[in-house]
């Protein structure tokens, strides 16, 4: 058996310390990915173009902003509370070669004034927790 050397040991220590330093995401429910067909329809209804900036709050794996960038050339900002899902979103953006157009983060660092499209999806808990008529629908911000 050969010894792996200090580089592997340092990597393992850095990985463990890095994982321990992250706060776990609060449990706000399970991640339910939006089917691709629905994402495509939402982006079509919103009439997304390459001049738009698409925000997705609770972006999960980033499929909405990544698809907006891939299909329409739009810039995108995904905000997700779970760091693991942010990692998946960033990886998906790199694989789709749209990482230069999309930013995924656990923090909101952008100004809302640049927003041109923000997809929203009713969640099962919304009807009970929000007054009637307050459930938004996907569309353009004007």
3D architecture notes:
Strand 2 (about 75-80), helix 4 and strand 3 form a beta-alpha-beta unit. Helix 2 crosses helix 3. It is built from five helices and three strands. It has a domain at about 55-120 and about 135-140: Rossmann fold (3-Layer(aba) Sandwich), CATH 3.40.50. It has helices spanning about 5-20, 35-45, 65-70, 85-95, 125-130; strands at about 55, 75-80, 100-105. A three-stranded parallel sheet has the order 1-2-3.
Features:
single chain, 142 residues, Rossmann fold, 5 helices, 3 strands, 37% helix, 10% strand, globular
Cα shape? globular
Strand content: 5-15%
Mean pLDDT: 74
Helix content: 25-40%
Taking the alpha carbons of the first and last residues, their distance comes to: 65 Å
Which structural class fits the helix and strand makeup?
A: alpha/beta
Instruction: From the 3D structure, determine the CATH topology of one domain.
Output: Rossmann fold
Tally of DSSP helical segments: 5
The main sheet comes to: 3 strands, parallel
What is the CATH first-level class name of one domain? Answer: Alpha Beta
Q: What Rg do the Cα atoms give?
A: 18 Å
Low-confidence stretches: 8-20, 125-137
What is the CATH architecture descriptor of one domain?
A: 3-Layer(aba) Sandwich
Q: Can you list the strand order of the major beta sheet?
A: 1-2-3
Give the name of the CATH superfamily of one domain: Vaccinia Virus protein VP39
Q: Which series of helices and strands comes N to C? A: HHEHEHEH
Task: Please count the beta strands (DSSP E, at least 2 residues each).
Answer: 3
């Amino acid at each position: 058996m050969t010894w792996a050397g200090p580089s592997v040991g340092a990597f393992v220590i850095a990985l463990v310390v890095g994982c321990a330093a992250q706060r776990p995401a609060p449990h706000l429910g399970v991640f339910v990915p939006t089917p691709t067909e629905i994402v495509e329809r939402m982006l079509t209804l919103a009439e997304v173009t390459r001049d738009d900036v698409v925000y997705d709050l609770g972006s999960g794996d980033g499929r909405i902003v990544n698809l907006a960038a891939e299909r329409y050339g739009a810039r995108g900002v995904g905000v997700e509370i779970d760091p693991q899902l942010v990692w998946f979103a960033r990886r998906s953006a790199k694989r789709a070669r749209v990482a230069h157009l999309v930013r995924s983060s656990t923090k909101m660092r952008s100004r809302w004034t640049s927003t041109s499209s923000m997809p929203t999806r009713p969640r099962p808990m919304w009807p009970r927790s929000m007054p009637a008529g307050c459930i938004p629908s996907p569309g353009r911000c004007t």
